[in-house]
Amino acid sequence: MRHCARVAAVRIVVLGALPAACTVFDALGPSGPRAVTFVYAGDSVLSVNQPVPVVVTVLAQGVPLPGQRLRLDIGPDSTRVTLNIAGDSLIPCRAGQASLLIRLLHSSAAGTEVPDTAIALRVTGGAPPGARCP
Fold first, then answer.
1. What is the rounded distance in angstroms from the CA atom of residue 10 to the CA atom of residue 59?
2. Which residues, 6 or more positions from 85, have their beta carbon under 8 angstroms from its beta carbon?
3. In whole angstroms, what separates CA 72 from the centre of its chain?
4. Mean pLDDT, rounded, for 121-134
5. What does CATH list as the number for 3-124?
6. Phi/psi of residue 129, each to 5°?
7. Does the reported pTM lie above 0.90?
8. Is 68 exposed, middle or buried (0-12, 13-18, 19+ CB in 10 A)?
9. SS3 102
10. Whole-angstrom Cα distance, residue 48 to residue 94?
11. Which residue in 5, 43, 51, 59 has the fewest CB atoms around it within 10 Å?
């Protein structure tokens, strides 16, 4: 590849990455810690044996932070609801209450105040007595 073509390719890559970098820097500006919030866009009323995708957006003072790693857990009773193996869907198993616990891991959002968030879930429908999640 000729030198001019390599320089042009590098410029394209750098210029393409600038909007994403600017969004992160705007959200994490030097003015101190920024509040982080989680927006859960999935259903909170679930039906037994009907999996539901988990859709969570991370915001720093209202600015989306794409690509953040999240830890998702079910509490206090994972016999009612569990996560699938990939961790991207809820599997309702028995009627009752549970919570989806969301935590931000290893954020590129250094300097943010990171709360843990719990989303209340309610499972409806019947399941055989003693049924448990896989």
1. 30
2. none
3. 8
4. 72
5. 2.60.40.1080
6. -55, 135
7. no
8. buried
9. strand
10. 6
11. 5
